[in-house]
């Protein structure tokens, strides 16, 4: 009798970096610290050169991204992704099968399309961006993930809200926001 071993994965989600190099580097450090297997960027890099920062991900980490409404330099984005060993640019929409999970990723420019994707129940995980509104929500069988904006200029100094990424842990079957400005990350995410 053959037993098939399933790979348990951790996924990092980031979106709307909007040229913020410092916050993007903080997010990458968190992904490396937490030993994520896959990182999904839901678009709005703005300047394609920021994509090169993702070369700093652990060598085994796979990186996927889609185009956002502020990503006009399609050729530049495509070239930047091609220079990263484990990276795949999915253009406007992507769907992948990772560890038996059907994953969809779309920037979210068209809100009706975003909600139609949620309602379709075609995905176990649907990754969105665009709105700058944080969201971890289970809708039927679909876990909807939107980390909100990463760029510091989208946050008021008067609010307690901070830029975040999302870590999805398949073993725990849970997703949580991780504040990129937290100096005390107390999570046991060892592989």
Please describe what this structure looks like.
- This protein has helices at 21-33, 74-82, 111-120, and strands at residues 10-14, 38-41, 62-65, 87-89, 93-98, 101-106, 125-127, 135-139, 142-146, 164-169, 174-179.
- It is an alpha/beta fold.
- The chain has a six-stranded mixed β-sheet, with helices on one face. A five-stranded mixed β-sheet has the order 5-6-7-9-8, covered by helices on one side.
- The two termini are 27 Å apart.
- Mean pLDDT is 90; it is low at 1-5 and 186-191.
How many domains? The number is 1
Unreliable residue stretches:
1-5, 186-191
SS element count, helices:
3
Distance between the termini: 27 Å
Q: Approximately how much beta-strand content do the residues carry? A: 25-35%
Strands of the widest sheet, in order across it, are: 4-3-2-1-10-11
Shape: globular
Can you name the CATH architecture? 4-Layer Sandwich
Which helices and strands occur, and which strands form pairs?
Elements: E1 10-14, H1 21-33, E2 38-41, E3 62-65, H2 74-82, E4 87-89, E5 93-98, E6 101-106, H3 111-120, E7 125-127, E8 135-139, E9 142-146, E10 164-169, E11 174-179
Question: How would you summarize what this structure contains?
Answer:
The protein is an alpha/beta fold. The chain has helices spanning 21-33, 74-82, 111-120, and strands spanning 10-14, 38-41, 62-65, 87-89, 93-98, 101-106, 125-127, 135-139, 142-146, 164-169, 174-179. The protein has a single domain, classed as Metallo-dependent phosphatases (Purple Acid Phosphatase, chain A, domain 2), CATH 3.60.21.10.
């Amino acid at each position: 009798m053959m037993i098939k071993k399933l790979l348990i994965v951790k996924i990092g989600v980031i979106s709307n970096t909007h040229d913020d190099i410092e916050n993007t580097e903080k997010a990458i450090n968190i992904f490396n610290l937490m030993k994520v297997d896959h990182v999904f960027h839901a678009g709005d890099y703005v300047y394609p050169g920021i994509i090169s920062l993702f070369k700093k991900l652990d060598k085994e980490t796979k990186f996927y991204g889609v185009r956002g409404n502020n990503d006009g330099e399609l050729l530049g984005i495509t070239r930047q992704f091609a220079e990263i060993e484990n990276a795949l640019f999915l253009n406007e929409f992507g769907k992948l099968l990772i560890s038996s999970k059907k994953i969809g990723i779309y920037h979210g420019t068209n809100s009706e399309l975003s909600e139609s994707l949620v309602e379709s129940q075609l995905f176990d995980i649907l990754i969105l961006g665009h709105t700058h509104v944080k969201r971890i929500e289970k809708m039927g069988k679909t876990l909807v993930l939107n980390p909100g904006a990463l760029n510091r200029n989208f946050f008021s100094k008067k609010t307690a809200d901070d830029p975040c990424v999302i870590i999805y842990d398949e073993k725990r079957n849970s997703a949580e926001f991780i504040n990129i400005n937290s100096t005390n990350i107390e999570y046991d995410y060892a592989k």
